[in-house]
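Exercise 7. Given the encoded structure of a 202-residue chain, write a plausible sequence.
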């Protein structure tokens, strides 16, 4: 099943493509509690993005081996100076499908520009490129994605479910997943402890 990214954002008064969604404390259900989501698509047809701060229980080298991109982990040649690619739980939809968010220095027939300096490639070609040391400079892999029906995300934001801010690529690609939530809140000048204290208050 192909995902219609609809990255134009036409018809939306304020498209949030290229922005973070940061979960408020009243979102307590998994998988969205304390999440930071990078939003790739936002239009009248709905929205689509990836949770970028919750890890899958598998390393990138192990994943490449499991799906047959390389025979052994020793065959992987990640770019010199590049960070290990984090494998995140992108969301509850199509959890077995992989997507790679990456810097815009890699391009293929299936690569889609998302925002300035960041692109999305949903095919195995980029995994092969990364394993051979010819992929993008920075990347993060997500298994599954998060999706919203038309008007659903706007309703959740209006109900104080999400904070939004322009995404910081340093946070998107940071290998330290545990600190992404507090760092994203920091973009808004908010301390996590203060946010928790405000939960349930008008």
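Solution.
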């Amino acid at each position: 099943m192909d995902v219609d990214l609809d990255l134009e954002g036409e018809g939306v008064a304020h498209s949030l493509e290229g922005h973070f969604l940061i979960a408020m404390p009243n979102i307590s259900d998994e998988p969205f509690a304390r999440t930071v989501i990078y939003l790739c698509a936002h239009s009248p047809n709905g929205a689509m993005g990836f949770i970028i701060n919750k890890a899958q229980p598998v390393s990138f080298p192990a994943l490449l081996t499991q799906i047959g991109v390389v025979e052994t982990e020793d065959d992987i040649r990640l770019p010199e100076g590049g960070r290990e690619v984090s494998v995140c739980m992108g969301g509850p939809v199509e959890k077995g499908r992989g997507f790679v968010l990456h810097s815009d220095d890699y391009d293929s027939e299936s690569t889609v520009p998302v925002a300035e300096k960041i692109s999305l490639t949903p095919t195995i070609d980029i995994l092969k490129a990364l394993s051979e040391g010819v992929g993008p400079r920075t990347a993060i892999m997500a298994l599954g994605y998060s999706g919203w029906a038309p008007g659903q995300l706007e309703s959740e934001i209006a109900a104080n479910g999400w904070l939004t801010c322009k995404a910081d690529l340093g946070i998107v690609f940071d290998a330290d997943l545990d600190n992404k939530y507090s760092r994203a809140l920091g973009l808004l000048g908010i301390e996590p402890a203060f946010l928790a204290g405000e939960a349930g208050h008008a």
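Remark. The longest helix spans residues 124-131. Students should compare their own answers with the one above.
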